[in-house]
Each structure stands twice: as structure tokens, then as C-alpha cells.
Amino acid sequence: MYMSDADICREYKLAKNPKEQILILADENCCKKDDIIRILVENGMDVPTRKKKAAQESKKEEPEEVSHPAAVLQHESCGVVRDMPDSVRKILIVKMEEIENTIAALEKEYKEIANYMCGA
């Protein structure tokens, strides 16, 4: 955090659009929106909550994360995949592994850029 809790609260209180200010403060302090909200709440600020959206999000089932492409074949929701010819299955697993490696490389690059921008 670059700003003190008092500075964050002051900026939030003076904002014309408090909801947008939370995002601005998070960006300025190279932290998450939740960190700013936590600071505001801990300092007695009235932070509007979106109860309706939170309730809807809690009702949504998040997809189970699969650690490895081959694990997809073992996942209970993928019964149809088991009936697939082995040659097709192997090609798709290779493609999924390529995608997984690309994502990992892009995530690493993203984190490096974010750390550089935040002075870490």
C-alpha cells in the first residue's frame, strides 16, 4: 500500500462515484479491490454492498478446476469423452497441454508486468 488507511478513507469519502473510487484506489495502491473495501470497513466507512449480486453469485456453481488435461477424462461430467476414439483423445490432450502451457506463460508475463508497474 502506498496510501495510509486515513488517506484511502478520505479519498473514498470525497469521491463523486464511491464505487468507481474503490477501483481507482486499488489501482493506485497496487492491491485488490477487496483490500480497499476491507480497509474502508475496518475504519467505519459505509461501503455499499451488492447483496443481490452476491446472492446470485453464491448460487452459481463454480466449475471444478482440472489440474491436468488428462484429468478431464476422469471428471464425472465428461462421460461422453470416454467413448471417444483413442487417437482423437490423444490429439485433444496434446492440444489442451499446449493451451495450458501458453496460459501459464502468459500468466507469468502478466505478473512480471504487474510487479514492474507496481514497483515490486
Describe the structure.
The chain has 120 residues and is mainly alpha-helical. 63% of the residues lie in helices and 0% in strands. The chain has 6 helices and no strands. It has helices spanning 5-14, 18-28, 33-42, 51-59, 69-72, 86-117. The chain starts with a helix and ends with a helix. 6% of the residues are buried. The mean pLDDT is 78.
Summarize the SSE layout with pairings.
Blueprint lengths: L4 H10 L3 H11 L4 H10 L8 H9 L9 H4 L13 H32 L3
Helix pairs in contact: 1-2, 2-3
**pLDDT averaged residue by residue:** 78
Q: Could you tell me the radius of gyration in angstroms?
A: 22 Å
Report how far apart the termini are.
11 Å
DSSP helix count?
Answer: 6
Helices and strands, in N-to-C order? HHHHHH
User: What proportion of the residues is helical, as a percent range?
Assistant: 55-70%
Structural class: mainly alpha
Shape: elongated
Low-confidence stretches: none
Sheet with the most strands, sense and barrel status? none
What is the number of beta strands? 0
Task: Tell me the fraction of residues in β-strands, as a range.
Answer: under 5%
